[in-house]
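Regression report. Comparing outputs from two consecutive submissions.

Submission 1:
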Amino acid sequence: MAIKPQQKTTTPTIENRKARHEYFIDDSFEAGIELTGSEVKSLRQGNANLQDAYCQIRNGELWIESMYVQPYAEANRWNVEERRSRRLLIHKQDIYRWQQKVNEKGVTLIPLKLYFTRGWAKVQVGVARGKKQYDKRDSIKERDIERDVRRGEA
């Protein structure tokens, strides 16, 4: 009996590309996310946005706020609010550890990426510090220099 090659499903990865420009990412971790069925179907189509999203610890639970998930067209009346708070699934001791880091001045939790692993929706959350304007200019300058070196123009 021949072994069939596994079919690779191409579920989209939704990234927060602006986060690496706006913040220094000190550390990151993976968390599950609590979703409804229509939200999962919409995410599998790639209809979400992490641009304005942030994470918050409330009552010993980790929540993602302001993440946009477009309503699934076929779900009609079972759709939920697009920018509702969604609970992130992570161990209690990890929440306490990240809470201590967030209590430092200027540190926040930012969702970096949303993807599927073995059928489960996961969010990569980064522990971030805000960049100043001059830091952003330095990053742009370094990126331009790297691009010129790769082209061979340096």
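Submission 2:
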Amino acid sequence: MSGHSKWATIKHKKGAADAKRGKMFSKLAKEIMLAAKSGGDPGMNPTLRTLLQKAKGINMPNDNIDRAIKKGTGELEGGSLDPVTYEGYISGVGIVVNALTDNKNRAAAEIGHIFSRSGTDFAKTGSVSRNFERKGQIIIEKAAAEEDKLMEIVLEAGADDMIADENGYEVVTQPAAYQGVATALEKANIPTVSSEIVYLPMSTKAVTDLATAQSVMKFVNALEDNEDVQNVYHDAAIPDDILSKIE
């Protein structure tokens, strides 16, 4: 998500996620498994605690969560996963793909095929990701909180910034401060639209042509459909009226 298009992007992605909820659970289970390797107690593992909040937000069944934690801690078999990152460009838009896989060769071949099918290829490692920053990002609807009170809560909890617009608020944190801010919002009973650690572009590329926007989002959606892909980040700034026309 980037720039003024983040709200339309959220709605676009939510619609796609609702249609593929089972795949969404599977992807999150992988993240939980990887995090649980460092300890299955969320009270002592902030990364795991963050993921469990995310799981709660999408109504992931408790059995799925417990099974993923046990695989990660070794109580159940099947917890061997490796994180892999792929980078590239499409129509001048930078793309960063984060994957978790039990077979790096398969993941590279399948994701590489998606790139080539879209007329592009992997870029050199670091050439795209250097233009992104790892940040905590929390999105809150306008009606969920009064602006001054919300700003007081998040800044006291350690947030870097809070950006307000007509739709709501975007709270940005350093990764280390994210959990404290998320917990402060939870204690204040302020619901969030999305809350996670993401890669935010340091600058964006304006995409105002519908055909180009469709090409970019088709590529992003194809990547997200791959079973090993966890997250796809891009630096396209697509206006809401253009994004809303993309199916």
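Expected: both submissions complete independently.
Actual: both completed, but the second showed a warning that disappeared on reload.
Relevant detail on submission 2: Residues 1-5 have pLDDT under 50 and may be disordered.
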